[in-house]
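Comment thread on ticket #2218

A.B. wrote:
> Attaching the input chain for the structure job we discussed in standup.
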Amino acid sequence: MKRASSLVGVAVTLAVAAAGFVVPSAIGAAAGSATSRSARSDYATPTTAGAHWVNTWTAMPQLTEPGNMPPAPFTQSDLVFAHTTLRQTVHVSVGGRYMRLRLSNAFGGTDLPITAVSVARPAGGKAGVSAVEPGSTHPVTFGGKPGMDIPMGAQAVTDPLDFPVQPGSNLTVTLYLADGQASTSITSHPGSRTTSYMVSGDHLDDTDLPGATTADHWYFLSGLEVWSRSNTSAAIMLGDSITDGRGSTTNMNNRWPDQLLARLQSKPGTSDIAILNQAAGGNRILHDGLGPNALARFDRDVLAQSGVSWLLVFEGVNDIGTADATEAASKQVTADLIGAYEQIITRAHAQGLRVYGATITPFGGNGYDDPSGYHEAARQAVNDWIRTSGRFDAVVDFDKTVRDPADPHRLAPAYDVGDGLHLNPDGYHAMADAVPATLFRHSPAPTAFSQLPPATTH
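C.D. wrote:
> Ran it. Output below, let me know if you need it in another format.
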């Protein structure tokens, strides 16, 4: 794609500015290829009154386990992705004309040197494909530069890019790392359920990556934001592998949050709601597991996201299932989970978020199902508190939705993926349908004092 002449560039700059967006003058003046590594890309600073940034896609950052590292030769001794092109696709919820990416080095053992980044539309609009639509590739920049060294533990947000993103669509993100990351501690999201592609060399702008190595993980990507209308808001799903989509179909985006998104977008009153999946397999609320515990990651994965109005908490089964199978441990994990829910509610309400609680689904027949029934007793006690305490702003009863009516401590056979814990796409469809669309209507936000008990006098 060639740059327009300087006169056309000036005209475009004036037209966009008149529409309420400020465009840096360097855009119209830049010459050469739009994908030149030395030129600024077509980014703009949106200033439309009342509009704001909203996350439209997220992935919970995690320290990559040895089994989820890139295959050789992309993982070497203390070096990952050297002179490598990495192509990944993400599923967008709400759309917008301008977009920007978030890249994470939260768990990197060294700084992460990103050489260059581009975005494109995937071939056929599909997830998990290596090809992109010809002519759709656009460079992404960091402060006008093609790349950035992201410090250890930090994230980087790219410049705004004039690249219209359609609701419910897929987007291809391609990274090139010339030097790679000089550590085998890297940041990823293993449960992508989406195929990524890696190939040696600089192929950032190639239309396809024939012969590329594949892996069903996301690396370094943690978010995508769009500049959208003031009434566009996001809802975060905080959870574990059931929300992360274990049992769903690779490259089909049929996790229960995906299916909820599709239903909301089919209704005019909720088509402007972004659904953000902040879940990971094995995650727990109280203790670290696969990824930091939910209380530890709450600020990063919930409060730091853009445009969020709602939070749905569906987590706790891994805390119960990994507790000792004794009566004392059952009572302790119940009390600790309730205390953790209280903390989450308090911290979210302080930021004006509405908080919804979801009951923990059955695990009869799974390894979490101890013979003495102590784990099941804890699940029932926690669910009873979720349903009756009144602390959550609303309750979604996933347990009631997916349990077997003839044996309520087990999943309905039609929904069970086969391990007694995770669900198949039909089960995830039932869960998505159990979430009322009315939960995502705007209303006055709760205050920090809305659910405090009466003051005690002395």
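A.B. wrote:
> Thanks. Noting for the ticket: The CA atoms of residues 73 and 81 lie 8 Å apart.
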